[in-house]
Write a structure and sequence with these properties.
The complex is a heterodimer of chains A (about 550) and B (about 120). Chain A is built from 18 helices and 23 strands. Chain A is an alpha/beta fold and about 550 residues long. Chain A is globular, with a radius of gyration of 24 Å. The chains are: A alpha/beta (about 550), B alpha/beta (about 120).
């Protein structure tokens, strides 16, 4: 199946694209009867037109002028009395104001979280699961609203948020509702009169710092396991995307006991630090770049608390010769697999930003890929036909532009793109960059540095050994892709690539229940799986003797 | 390892406000190629860090492997309007430092039209 400019998203079947990972084959989606899918389809069918911007007549998103922090189940103005304008990257124009909080607001949020932690920590797994399910149900009812809000603030195409971000976030809460119910302690029989009972206990209050690239989905990845394990959380959203999570709080706030979830917005250097270095948190979780990751881990070390970090990547996407053995659906899927570097405008830690292509098929394979890339429709993210929207900020766009220039100076060949498009009208003020492909070799900076934009670096390899060597010649180890019809080769490569997630004959699927996290400089910890409950729990061991006799030592 | 007059100016102001500082060149993910300006006491350099030099009396570190993979470029640190999106201290002033490569391309050439977020 191909996705081309102007293709009807519903007809194309996003679920078949595997973005959401619910459809592994041609059978009906496992959760087809879910209301949110119907709503999504209806939403897409009804709107071949562009969604109205939040706050405008006909928009599904109600908009206030100003947004406060969400603390203790209430809206609380920042103690600083300061607010900052929040722009949409699609035009560069501000659309609301959001709290510009200080360290004192983090303390308020921690007060609320600590006030709630005893009660929430003793809530039964069934009750916690019911809360997570209620969150999911509320999100489902507001799926379209959340999808439009997320698209407008971040710039990601609404067809992605309708089909991927929000449905995946909903499913994530449901997954951890189930995981919380299924969680068990363990008993070790030391001898027939001595037993070690292992219980999971909540950590208490945790701090979570969310990146700008999937503001709601990454929030769900962090909030769901924390709450499922019985913790209260203080969340600091990314500075470029402070608002959509507040719309989420409007939707789910009434379903969560006050103080269990708190959201505080403000500058990272002040409130991010105030949260991550705070002695009143029992764990810190972060997604972002390497130095802040190290800083977070340093703060955690100083407080003697655990941390989980999900950092950068420069993921290889490897295409072996046999992908072109037949001109069939699999080849089509592989071509799409390469083009997925443009998913979410390349602002993905696992962006398949290095394509390694077997030398023998390079020309014909790239020809097909470039044809597909040329058909990518760029524009207003609220247009359901748009496939790529603006970068999240002008700084990101200019960084991308700078890297492409570096690539040119290093001698990389620009195969397509390589500039900012002129989209006309108010979009001229937005932060757009054309999907770009650079041909070069792996020692170039554009193959080594994470650009975090729609820029693909392409090179070739002669054999499996060289493909593996190039794949692993990077500081990072978050994701990788392997495309081949040879199952044994796929398995060998998958095991040998130093990365936490190796997509095999697929890419960019993020279903709950598949562990996600990095090797090497890409972070510590595994999200998206029930093992995350361990990252949010203490282990209590009761070592019990049923022997009435003394040990006899004294 | 050099810095523009504007960057040196800001470094001095930040030092007056926060005390001794240290720069760490970041990599990867959202704020990837940004130089991070931190309080020196917040994060001691590790065994893998390379001291590239000083700007305005402030040490500038980069991960040694990262520096090698970047081709050992010479850096010029500049500053532009628009708050840093990370923990970097200049974000509090509505500014962000950026790393330019001397004799090559600017890693982050920020347009003059950048609208301050603050």
């Amino acid at each position: 199946m191909r996705v081309q400019a102007g293709t009807d998203v519903a007809a194309a079947g996003w679920w078949e694209l595997g973005i959401c990972g619910h459809r592994a084959n041609s059978s009906p989606p496992r959760i087809e009867t879910r209301a949110y899918e119907k709503e999504r389809e209806m939403a897409i069918e009804q709107t071949h037109r562009t969604y109205e911007a939040p706050g405008r007549l006909g928009s599904p998103v109600e908009l206030h002028d100003r947004y406060e922090n969400f603390i203790g189940g209430r809206w609380v103005p920042p103690t600083t009395h300061e607010y900052r304008e929040n722009p949409t990257p699609s035009t560069g124009q501000p659309f609301c104001e959001v709290a510009h909080s200080g360290a004192a607001d983090i303390e308020l949020a921690l007060d609320a979280a600590h006030a709630a932690k005893e009660s929430w920590g003793h809530t039964s797994p069934a009750q916690r699961a019911a809360v997570l399910d209620a969150i999911a149900d509320a999100m489902e009812e507001s799926l379209e609203m959340l999808a439009v809000a997320e698209s407008y603030e971040n710039g990601k195409p609404v067809r992605e948020t309708l089909a991927a971000d929000i449905p995946l976030a909903i499913d994530h809460f449901r997954y951890f509702a189930g995981a919380a119910r299924a969680e068990e302690g363990r008993i070790s029989e030391i001898d027939d009169q001595t037993y070690a009972y292992h219980f999971h206990e909540p950590l208490g209050v945790v701090g979570q710092i969310i990146p700008f690239n999937f503001p709601l989905l990454m929030a769900a990845w962090k909030i769901a396991p924390a709450l499922a394990a019985g913790n209260c959380t203080v969340v600091k959203p990314a500075s470029p995307t402070p608002w959509s999570i507040l719309k989420l709080c409007e939707v789910i706030g009434e379903h969560i006991p006050g103080g269990v979830l708190n959201v505080v917005n403000g500058p990272g250097a002040e409130i991010g630090k105030a949260l991550a270095s705070n002695k009143r948190i029992a764990k810190v979780a972060f997604t972002g770049e390497t130095v802040t990751g190290r800083l977070i881990m340093t703060y955690a070390a100083q407080s003697l608390i655990p941390s989980t970090t999900e950092l950068g990547g420069k993921s290889p996407n490897i295409f072996f010769e046999d992908v072109m053995a037949s001109d069939d659906a699999f080849l089509d899927k592989a071509v799409e697999g390469l083009v997925l570097y443009a998913f979410n405008k390349g602002e993905v830690c696992t962006c398949p930003s290095r394509a390694l292509i077997a030398e023998s098929i390079y020309e014909p394979f790239m020809e097909r890929c470039l044809e597909r890339i040329a058909a990518i429709k760029q524009g207003d993210p609220l247009d359901p036909e748009t496939m790529i929207g603006p970068q999240v900020s002008s700084a990101q766009m200019e960084k991308i532009s700078g890297y492409v220039q570096i690539g040119r100076e290093e001698g990389a060949e620009v195969l397509i793109g390589g500039q900012q498009p002129h989209l006309g009208g108010e979009l001229e003020g937005g932060y757009y960059y054309e999907p770009t492909v650079l041909k070069g070799h792996n020692s170039m900076r554009v193959f080594q540095e994470e650009i975090f934009g729609p820029v693909l670096a392409v090179t070739t390899f002669k054999d499996e050994a060289e493909a593996l060597a190039i794949a692993n010649d990077t500081m990072y180890g978050l994701g990788a892709g392997v495309w081949t019809r040879d199952g044994s080769k796929a398995f060998r490569m998958g095991r040998a690539i130093q990365a936490g997630r190796v997509w095999t004959n697929c890419y960019h699927q993020y279903p709950a229940h598949a562990a996600f996290g990095g090797y090497k400089s890409s972070g510590v910890g595994r999200e998206n799986h029930r093992m995350m409950l361990e990252h949010y729990s203490q282990t209590k061991c009761l070592l019990v003797s049923y022997d009435p006799n003394p040990m006899g030592l004294f | 390892m050099t810095a523009t007059a504007e960057a040196l100016d800001l470094i001095e102001r930040l030092r007056d406000k926060h005390g001794p500082l240290a720069f760490f060149q970041s990599g990867g993910c959202c704020e990837g190629s940004a130089p991070m300006c931190l309080c020196e006491s917040d994060m001691p350099p590790g065994p893998g860090d390379l001291l590239l030099g000083e700007i305005g009396g402030t040490p500038f570190y980069i991960d040694a492997e990262q520096y090698a993979r970047w081709g050992r470029p010479r850096f010029l640190i500049d500053v532009c309007p628009g708050a840093a999106e990370s923990f970097s201290l200049e974000g509090l002033e509505g500014m962000h430092f950026l790393t330019r490569t001397i004799g090559g391309t600017q890693v982050c050439e920020i347009a003059g039209s950048e609208r301050p977020r603050s």
